[in-house]
Amino acid sequence: MPRPLHPERHYTARVGWLRAAVLGANDGLVSTAALVVGVAAAGTSRSAMLLSGVAGLVAGAMSMAAGEYVSVSSQADTERADLERERLELQADPDAERDELARIYVARGLDPSLAHQVARQLTAHDALGAHARDELGITEALSARPVQAALASAATFAVGAAFPLLVAALAPPARAIVTVSATSLAALAALGALAAGAGGAGRLRAAVRVSFWSALALGITALAGRLFGAAV
Questions:
Q1: Which residues contact residue 80 at a Cβ distance below 8 angstroms, ignoring those fewer than 6 apart?
Q2: What is the pTM of this model?
Q3: Is 165 in contact with 57 (CB distance < 8 Å)?
Q4: Does some domain include residue 5?
Q5: In the chain, what percentage of residues exceed pLDDT 90?
Q6: What's the total number of domains in the chain?
């Protein structure tokens, strides 16, 4: 009797939106927290600090959306160009393309006769799909989705940026720098662990990595705000 199939959980399909979402949330938290801390370190008023943070939230979300859309669109354009080139090559010389596919399978460990048999069957089923997957590395799960990436990045940036702004609005003015820094670092560590878990990776290492670089960014920005605030 055939063995029953067991369910498997894979995370590859999440790569497109997960990368943009994690980048947006991290950037929103770090950049806005650093902006608030830097402005506060310069000795400005609470209203000026919050206004700077809100401006950073709006500008950052729009910048993230535009940047993600442009960069992922470039990837999508490249994928389409490669697929069109492959489609023309399949029309011009299908035998050579089938042999090329067979050589790929031989390089991956199949014996030549089996590799040619697999190449023939896959070519008969979906020649362009086989070349896209096995020659170009383009799959449905990993294909570029510009709009999805832009929306995920902008939305998560805004959510991440709203957190240090809320903390800054509620914290006593004298403790704004310490409170915003501490809560933002805790949120960033939790976000790093959550993102790593969603991607099937180790949580602790991700949390430590995010916390270290974020603390460095906050410290440098606070120092810059202190220096330039004293100079002004």
A1: none
A2: 0.67
A3: yes
A4: no
A5: 25
A6: 1
